[in-house]
Design goal:
It is built from one helix and three strands, in the order αβββ. By secondary structure, the chain is mainly beta.
Length: about 60
């Protein structure tokens, strides 16, 4: 995993939630520092429940 991959942000296309690798999703079992690519495919958006595949890279 490169530093760029570890800090890359992803946005939920359904609700606009931005996954921040530095924060992770502790309530969803994803510890801080977890790159999006390392999240299991069974993970869901903590805001709207969208699937992981409904996220795209966020360049903002």
């Amino acid at each position: 995993m490169t530093t760029e991959t570890a800090t890359m942000r992803w946005i939920c296309e359904s609700c606009g939630f931005i996954y921040e690798p530095d924060e992770g999703d502790p309530d969803g079992g994803i510890p801080p520092g977890t790159a999006f690519e390392d999240i299991p495919d069974t993970w869901f958006c903590p805001v709207c429940g969208a699937r992981k595949k409904d996220f795209t890279r966020y360049e903002g």
